[in-house]
Amino acid sequence: EKGGFPHYMLKEIYEQPWVLENTLGGRLKEEEGDVELGLGLDPLAIDRIHVIACGTAAYAGWYGKYLLEALARIPTEWDVASEYRYRDPVVDERTLAIAISQSGETIDTLEGIREAKAKGARTLGVINAKGSSITREVEDVLYIHAGPEIGVASTKAYIAMLSAMAMLAIHFGRRRRILGKEEAQGLLKEMRKLPRLVEEVLEKRPLIAHLAEKYHQAQDFLFLGRHVQAPTAYEGALKLKEISYIHAEAYPAGEMKHGPIALIDEHLPVVVLATRGPLYEKTLSNIQEVRARGGKVIAIATEGDGEIGKLAQDVFPVPEVHPLLAPIVSVVPLQLLAYEIAVLLGRDVDQPRNLAKSVTVE
Ligand code: F6R
Question: Are 143 and 24 in contact (CB under 8 A)?
Answer without folding.
Answer: no
